[in-house]
Each structure stands twice: as structure tokens, then as C-alpha cells.
Amino acid sequence: MAEFYPWQYTVWQQIRGTVVLKTHALLLKGRKGIGKLDFARSLAKSLLCKQITAERVACGMCASCKWFEQGAHPNFYLITPEALIESSGGAGSESSTTDKQDADSGKSGKKPSQHITIEQVRALNDFVYFSGHQDGLKVILIHPAEAMNGAAANALLKKLEEPPSNVLFILVAHHSQDLLPTIRSRCQQITLPIPDAATARNWLVQQGVEHADICLALAGASPLQAVAFNHDDYFSQHADFIRQISLPASFDPISLTNRLHKLDLPEIVSWLQKWCYDLMSFYTTGKIRYHVQQETTIRKLVATADPKLLAIFWRNLITSQQLSRHPLNAKLFLEEMLLSYIRVMVPERYAD
Ligand SMILES: [Zn+2]
């Protein structure tokens, strides 16, 4: 990729021009799927580069850049939850959890942790004090920072309170409000921008995304998530899902479950969450956020659904979202969720 996304040009100039060298901790925050992690990596790479270009981006040619690209730079350290390392082959891309889950994951042994643990933060000591080039800058990237559990956050706070010299911490957070206030206050905070619709659309078209507008709407205007919608049959699977649940009076939950249960379960729950969000939103405000193409269907469904039941079901999906990370039986879980949906939308279907 380019060193940063088109919508990040201004903020790159600001940060790379002045801020970084005056602080020992940066907090890059903003919506998921807008390229924060890539931005942070590019920033780190440029700070370590030995032949920085006139635009202050990494040259891509020097030994430092080569090490960085191979994931082997001795002065760069990435802390990310185990689960993200596994699902992304090490890089931890922001959108990776949506499309590359191994269908067999969960079959063998312990599930990888979704949290950043205290052991991971403690391991920094070796990096800070004993490894790398002692005199050069060291960069520590923590992503997503809100994944630190309590103990890990407190351990990091100690390091931020007495920052080692020549070390830059870059924290990346989708939900910075979940971080300890004391951590936030010790960081220079920068909100990365969300691209406007035209910029995002142009960029998606350049990436070869076929249904740019639809993908963008589904992703809630986060372009990197929109790209994930375009990957590996993801779009067609999602389209099939929406087609089916658009017909709650007749679709077959068993056969839909059979088609879906090997996909990433939390993702399917989020499909249903977005769908129900649109039903609720259309009922209360007449507005649709994600499924702009399905207005006629949504209008029809909302006309007959019981809004109270729908609201309860929608709220319960939040719990389903949490449970979907550790289901005892993915198939059963999905089937139950779809049956509940049918019961809400068409109570008479299972009345007898
Ligand atoms: Zn370089």
C-alpha cells in the first residue's frame, strides 16, 4: 500500500511535521476500519527509516525499511491480542477479523486470547532495555489499546509515567473511551479522520471493489471494512443472508444455518444486528443506515413486525454477540438465533 491513505494526508503532515518528536506517547483514535493501524505502522516505519524522503515518508529502500517490511526490525515492537495475530498472519490488520477466520478454529485446544495480557506488556522490558540498537529510537505499537486487560493497562501506565528515553509508544484505539483516563492523559491524542463519501468511494473503486456504494453503506462508512465485504464470496454470502432474512415467513433456518455455520460467527451476528438496527431505525425515524438498497423490503417488514418484540430481540443480540465468540455449538447457536428472529418477525409461523 501507499504509506498512508488519501484521507490521511493532512493529519500525516501535521504529525510527521512536528508532533512526534515532542512526545513519548501517541494515541491514534477513531472509528474501526479507517486505516489507523496502517497509519501507525507507516509512522513507525518512517521514524525508523534511515533515508527519509522529502515528504517525510519511509524510503522503502534502506536496511531499516527492509527489516520493517519483513517484520524483523529490532527497534520495533508490536503488541496485539493473540487472536489478532493468528487471524491475520501476524500483521493484525484492522479488517482481518471479518474475513479470514479459519473454519476449523475452535476445534483444537484453547482459543487465542482477545486481550492484551500483562505478560505481553512486561515483555517490553527486554525490548526497551536490552535489545535493538541502544542509541536509536524504539517504537512500540499497541493495537487495539483497549484490548489491554486491567493488569496490562496498569503495567503500561507505569511505563508511561516514567517513560524510558528514546522510546515512542503508539497506541491505536477504536474505543479510546475504554482506556484508563490516566493512560489517555499521558498520550498526545490524535483523532484520525473518516473519509467523506466521495473520497472513500474513489478509493474503493481503485481497489477494485465492485459494489463500492453498497459495501460502504454496509460498513458504516469505514472503507477498510468495506473492502472486507468484497473479499472471497463474502459479498455473495452476505447478500444471500439478507435475501433469506428478508423473507422471515418462508426462509428455511436449517438450510441457511448449514450454509453459514463455518463462517465467522460474530460476523454473522453483526450482520443480523445491522439488519435489525435498520428495521428499528426505519420504524422510529424512517432512516436506513446500512441496507440502503433494501428500503422496500424493510418498509414491508416494519409494517407488520411488533416493535416492542423487535426492540427486545435487538437488545438481546448484544449478548449473542458476546456469546458468539465462544459458542458450544456454532450450528445450534445460529439456528436458535434465526428461529428467534422468525418468532419476532412472524409469530404466527410457529404458533401451533
Ligand atoms: Zn528507509
Descriptive account of the structure:
- With 352 residues, the protein is α/β, with parallel strands linked by helices.
- The protein folds into three domains: 6-191, Rossmann fold; 197-231; 233-350, Zinc Finger, Delta Prime, domain 3.
- The chain is 49% helix and 7% strand.
- It has 17 helices and five strands.
- It has a five-stranded parallel beta sheet, with helices on both faces.
- Helix 14 packs antiparallel against helix 16.
- The longest helix has 21 residues, at 265-285.
- 38% of the residues are buried.
- Zinc ion (ZN) is lined by residues 49-51, 58-59, 61-62, 64-65.
Predict the CATH topology of the largest domain.
Answer: Rossmann fold
Query: What structural class is derived from the secondary structure elements?
Result: alpha/beta
Please list the strands of the largest sheet in the order they lie side by side: 2-3-4-1-5
Largest sheet: 5 strands, parallel
Helix-strand pattern, N to C? HEHHEHHHEHEHEHHHHHHHHH
CATH class categorisation of the largest domain: Alpha Beta
Shape: elongated
Radius of gyration: 22 Å
Which molecules other than protein and nucleic acid are bound?
A: zinc ion
In total, the number of domains comes to 3
Mean pLDDT: 86
Distance between the termini: 57 Å
CATH superfamily of the largest domain: P-loop containing nucleotide triphosphate hydrolases
Low-confidence stretches: 89-108
CATH architecture of the largest domain: 3-Layer(aba) Sandwich
